[in-house]
Design brief:
single chain, about 200 residues, alpha+beta, 5 helices, 9 strands, about 20% helix, globular
């Protein structure tokens, strides 16, 4: 395997999106091949690459809860990052602006690790992933079931996440998925399992 060079890590924000009206569920998506050439067909949390310069500032906010979807939410970096990722990856920007999509966000983990290429190119990527926990209080029903970023979006059972990861079996979480098109792999899922079920 080709190891990453001494360059700075790629910075990725991962969102653990939960809903208050459906406890024990986590939003996950299967990435579309067209817009996710490195991880096509991978079941993942909602993620977005971001400038590395923001990482330390984001962590400096600690693990406090911050509101999003309300006026002046963008003045706090965790809220701004969560809103930016959801607006781009879920297409709900207008609902955030209208106050129809609201909740709280907090930092739960900051991990740096080498991420292998699921396509088998033997090219790995050093990645710093900061995971934010998003608790929706309003607007969960506004999230689409698919979009340009994800061929499908599902509210999976969080209690099955660790088992699916251990067995590398995405069908444990989304039983009706095509096993030849969907896999579960990556730092975002490992970080999610660790954050939801710390050892």
């Amino acid at each position: 395997m080709e190891e990453p060079s001494g360059r700075s890590p790629t910075f990725v924000v991962s969102l653990l999106i939960e809903r208050s009206d459906m406890p024990g569920r986590l939003l996950m998506g299967v990435r579309t091949p067209r817009h996710n050439p490195r991880h096509p067909g991978v079941l993942s949390t909602i993620t977005q690459r971001a400038p590395l310069v923001l990482a330390d500032t984001l962590v400096a906010h600690g693990r406090s809860n911050f509101h999003f979807g309300v006026q002046r939410a963008g003045m706090m970096l965790p809220s701004l990052m969560a809103e930016a990722v959801m607006a781009r990856k879920l297409g709900i920007g207008q609902f955030l602006e209208q106050g129809m999509f609201r909740g709280q966000v907090s930092l739960v983990s900051d991990v740096t690790d080498v991420v292998d290429d699921p396509l088998g190119t033997q090219i790995s990527e050093l990645t710093r992933m900061i995971t934010l926990r998003v608790r929706l209080t309003t607007g969960a029903e506004l999230i689409p079931t698919s979009n340009a970023s994800y061929m499908r979006l599902d509210w999976v059972e969080t209690g099955k996440l660790s088992t699916a990861l251990t067995h590398h079996d995405a069908l444990i979480l989304i039983p009706d998925a095509d096993p030849f098109l969907v896999c579960i792999h990556g730092l975002c899922v490992r970080s999610a399992a660790a954050a939801l079920y710390p050892s």
